[in-house]
Amino acid sequence: MEAILKAALPGIILIVEALVLLVVALLHVAYTTYAERKVIGHMQQRLGPNRVGPRGLLQPIADVVKLLAKEDIVPLGADKGLFYLAPFISLVAGATSLAVIPIWNRFVLADVNVGLLVILALSSLSSYGVILAGWSSNSRYAFLGGLRASAQVVSYEVAMALSLVGVMLMAGSMNLSEIVKAQISSPFKIYALPQIIGFFVFMVSAIAETNRVPFDLPEAETELVAGYFVEYSAIRFALFYLAEYFGMVVMSAVAVTCFLGGWAGPFEVPGLPFFWFLIKLYALLFFYIWVRATLPRYRYDQLMGLGWKVLIPLALLNIVITGGLKLWW
Amino acid sequence: MAPTLELYTRKIGHPEWEEPFVVNMGPQHPSTHGVLRLYLELDGETVVRCDPRIGYLHRGLEKLSENMTYTQAMVLTDRLDYISSAANNTGYCLAVEKLLGLEVPRRARLLRTIVCEMARISSHLLWLATHALDIGAMTVFLYCFRDREWLLDIYEKICGARLTVSYPRIGGVRLDFTPEIIDELYQFTEEFPTRITDYETLIDVNRIWLRRTKGIAVVPPEKALNMGLTGPSLRGSGVPYDVRKFRPYDAYDEVEFEVPVGKNGDTYDRYRVRMEEMRQANRIIRQCLDKLAQTEGEPVVAEGAPDLLMPEKKKAPRAVPHPKKGFMVKGEEVPVVPEGEVYVSIEAPKGELGYYIVSDGSGKPWRVRVRAPSFVHISAIPEMVKGHMVADIIAVIGTLDVVLGECDR
Questions:
Q1: Which of A291, A290, A269 is nearest to A279 (CA)?
Q2: What is the per-residue pLDDT across A101-119, written as a single tens digit (0 to 9) for each?
Q3: Contact at CB, B136 and A297, closer than 8 angstroms
Q4: Alpha helices, H only, B81-161
Q5: Is residue B92 within 8 Å of B328, Cβ to Cβ?
Q6: Does the complex come out with an ipTM higher than 0.85?
Q7: With contacts defined as CB-CB under 8 Å, which chain A residues touch B145?
Q8: Residues B82 and B22 in one domain
Q9: Whether residues B166 and B39 fall in one domain
């Protein structure tokens, strides 16, 4: 009995850790929606949610309860199986990426050697959810949204992957913990300084990858009503919503890990090992929200032009420069 | 018989057999400015054919007004372009006044000019708000609504209504301004130019905004004239036609203002023209307010203007005081409104708004016909979006500033 327990203990600990991480991440996602509404509200001279709970703090929970209670409608002629499946693909792909992100040097669920590749793979997997949702809804708007999403994700993924190559070259590893450790021991402390081009390309393509303003074409409200999830209602709609914010959180976490030095900070905060990681994460999330409040939306062809003609050449240039410098030193 | 599988397979690769990708944009669509429906045939994202289908907001206002007296029918004009109701009222009143041969007092003309320009500002603010929102800039929307709210509050203080004001009346205006309103309007005109500058800093030099508007839906001057565009949409193409300058009405001949024109006739130029027009409207309000002080205490309604209870019958008895009995007896019958027909057009915020009224002598109009700029502008949409993308359709609807209440009437 004891032997079995001993053998199972690491597994149990892992499951508990995973659950804790998932719950914490879900809370973060829920309150990112709250923060977005509140911050944009104040940027636009209004108050944002302020009715449910003190200062509207219970608003995300009320939203979830409301969406759970709504009717789950499947349009006639929809491909039912795929229609049900699509939001889960998006959400699972978004949430799984969290596993490889080192939040602290002693807290990383899956310390895999190809962490960056896992993240890239999962983020392209999440686009399947979008494409399938657009396809299976049997609606013109959703179909157009799905088409846009597939084109956008495919082209911006190239730019994003290329922008991370510079980081891999400098750190000499694809393990995310190793990348953070390499940053801490490097003279710059964070890679955002030497990899400034890579950081820029990454941030832009991360916004595109998560379908946020100014690249929110797949769900452009004023053009395609709601884009790929126009036919979704109730909890499936909420899942897409969650997936989008999970994407935001994951992309910000990757940016923090690869470019901003992960858990390291200018000084240790006693008792709060995650402090610096979270501060950087919140700063990036605020940046996302700020961009949304400020910028108009690109047009489809302009977006493609930006991706292929500006970001990818920039990322390639960055690789050449990084490689050259690495060779000389 | 249902098409067989063989037919489907044969279709592939034969462009003449392939059906177009049809999208019905509207009438329930967030950015068709009401209930416009566009039948779109798309090739990918490019528009092959665009066909506006209208009539979802038809209320028969023209026909309805045939069963009302002239004064009653004025409230219907509020519902034409419900964003700038004061301008619609003024146009209608001018037409009826011309029919009646009324001379409007100067103070009333100044007051009407002020509310018309307020309507222009609030209409252009709503246009900017929705145009920016359509292109994706969300914050401009709420900033514009903040200022529009201020204007609507002033309207409320002037006449009690915020949207459908019915403030002008045949022969003048309903009420005089109180000193508080004049003070508040001074405050507004003081503050408003800085607000416009605020919006311009948000989007004027924004690269995404420029790429979304420059070179989109270019209309050369001749084409703009041929399509019947008026108002800012025409002036954006460089034609300096403005009814306020060509046939001045109310107090426009005694105020100074410029007519901004564009150069290239693209969406960006039309945006610039409207922004500049808001500044000019602000200037006009300022000048009228200064002139109001000279006419303090003068009447705001013309002598002999019809009141709300004007007779409906074809010929109303003229009241003649009887020399012996002392009170009035029935005399000869005269027309309530002289027989005839008039056409009067004004520069409404959306374009040239015309009223054609036929009178048969009774207190009710025999026919009212509205020349609505939005109706003409909607007919220009297919020409303007040809070869553009789906996202540009939204920009074109926005740049023409159509409102369906006026189009469908």
A1: A269
A2: 888 777 777 778 888 888 8
A3: yes
A4: 85-100, 106-135, 138-159
A5: no
A6: no
A7: none
A8: no
A9: no
